[in-house]
Amino acid sequence: MDYRILIVEDDPEMLDFLKNKLSQAGYLVSGAPNGVNAIKLVENTRPQLIVLDMNLPDINGTMVAKELKKIYPEVPIIFLTGNTSIQDKLKGFNAGGDDYLTKPFEFDELLARIHARLRQSARKVIEVGDLSLDTQTKVVKRLDKVIPLSPQEFRLLEYLMNHSGQVMSRELILNHVWEYQYDVNSRVVDVYIGYLRRKIDRDFEPKLIRSLRGFGYACG
């Protein structure tokens, strides 16, 4: 499959560099120098992945990500930016970013992250240990036993499994799974983690849903 990638970068030299290197790697690459052009290009070219700078001349990259995720939630976004603070990274993830790489960077690392995100978005079944989740049929199994989940439990488990091994904060989980609904607070995350543990872990070993006090939750 010829994957289409959109690079959103206002530095002409960096944009040309990325377009050339990714084209050499076998991707179909288009570029946009600002947020407005990026949104138009996504509508026209339907890329499978977006590499997005945070500091754009017209619309901030986080706003671009939010707009694109509303329309194309399945398209992974990798932030590639000079913003290095934890606060900036959280803003990127909260805006819908799937990955975050800071400049200066090694191209091979960016390429590896692109490969990983494309593999993840293309697959229909996510597996963590003996737990599997089919994103198409919405069937969850552990050791071939079907585990019925509510839609919200499914979305939470899918999010944790998509970030297997990573500790996800309550803030990130709320933003991605509940999309900061006005009547929802962070306690709801703890409640639904409890639901998942009873269904996913209570009758099985090893336990897959982990908590790190003060940090958040992980699967795997």
Structural overview:
The protein is α/β, with parallel strands linked by helices and 220 residues long. Helices cover 44% and strands 20% of the residues. The protein has helices at residues 12-24, 35-45, 61-71, 86-94, 107-122, 151-162, 170-178, 187-201; strands at 4-8, 28-32, 49-52, 77-81, 99-102, 125-128, 131-134, 140-142, 145-146, 209-212, 216-219. The strands form 3 sheets. Strands 2-1-3-4-5 form a 5-stranded parallel β-sheet, with helices on both faces. A 4-stranded antiparallel β-sheet has the order 6-7-8-9, covered by helices on one side. Helix 2 runs parallel beside helix 3 and helix 6 crosses helix 7. The protein is elongated.
Number of helical stretches of at least 4 residues:
8
Give the number of DSSP strands: 11
CATH topology of the largest domain: Rossmann fold
Q: How would a textbook summarize the main sheet?
A: 5 strands, parallel
State the CATH class of the largest domain.
Alpha Beta
**Radius of gyration from the alpha-carbon trace, in angstroms:** 18 Å
Helix content: 40-55%
Strands ordered across the widest β-sheet: 2-1-3-4-5
Average pLDDT metric: 90
Uncertain spans:
none
Order of helices and strands: EHEHEHEHEHEEEEHHHEE
Number of domains: 2
**First-residue to last-residue Cα separation:** 30 Å
Beta-strand content: 15-25%
Instruction: Determine the structural class based on helices, strands and strand pairing.
Output: alpha/beta
Tertiary shape:
elongated
CATH superfamily of the largest domain: Response regulator
CATH architectural arrangement of the largest domain? 3-Layer(aba) Sandwich
